[in-house]
Amino acid sequence: MGASKALLVLGRLDHTEAMRVAAGLTIFGHTVRLILMGGPVADTPENAAQAETLDLADVQPETTVPDQDLPYLDPAALAAALGAADVVISL
Questions:
Q1: What's the predicted TM-score (pTM) here?
Q2: Hey, which of 16, 33, 77, 89 would disulfide with 73, CB 3.0 to 4.6 Å?
């Protein structure tokens, strides 16, 4: 397997799928960062299950949506995250 990469998953349109993908990418030994965007994460059983998987995969989701129960990234912090990533996956 190749060298470990810094992967950034942007959950813009489908938060559930972004959480699933972020957790799955950790299997390959990559460092994965997940940023949820576009609105609050829906309180659904599917999202709750994916949140548990993220916890097991040691991925701490962040958000660009203020006043959520997740760490908030302002535009400058989002730009820095994008610049630091080797690969960006937008879902």
A1: 0.93
A2: 77
